[in-house]
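Database export, one record per block. Field names are fixed; values are copied verbatim from the stored entry.
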Amino acid sequence: MNWTQIPLGPLQTNAYVLMNEKKEAVIFDPGGNGPEFIKWLNDQQISPLAILLTHAHFDHIGAVDEVRDAFNCPVYIHEAEKDWLSDAAKNGSGRFLGNASITARAADEIIQEEKTIQLGSFSFDILYTPGHSPGSVSYYSATGGVVFSGDALFKQSIGRTDLPGGDHNLLLESIHSKLLELPEETIVASGHGPVTTIGEEMDGNPFLSGF
């Protein structure tokens, strides 16, 4: 099992493609550049099984419909943001992009609770990590030793909480109670910037000290 980080969309948000030896894959947060991203997947002969969204801000959803339609795969989102995909005001594109708003059709699967999901050979623990947004979730693969954290936790930083539905204290609580409880060697595949590890952020993230 291996994964690839691919920055996509207007803010170069990190999409991730987690793939097994049969080239089946799970895609996290396809933020834009749909045609180019689909061509890359086809060139690599990758077969996506699902699209897992960490949250529904516009820079994470720009290519959702194109990828979903190209590969006939379901889209997962937390119930707290199930109506954000189609609402430019809620997903932020109306505020930041004006007339160039970004929307997508409703998700196929609604996450209502923390649980383990199985997609082909892939298994993920869904961790509810709100604070950056009300429906933020992180997907932990124990076998892969990686957590796809969206915009909750970054290398030496945390997600912004000044957008609608953001809550700084709640985000810190989510990080400490959910993400920092993972093994220290766990790779953190963040929505922006370079990857890091849980141990590195426990030791050196200035936003997490003193909480």
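Remark 1: The chain has one domain: 2-204.
Remark 2: Residues 128 and 137 are 5 Å apart (CA to CA).
End of record.
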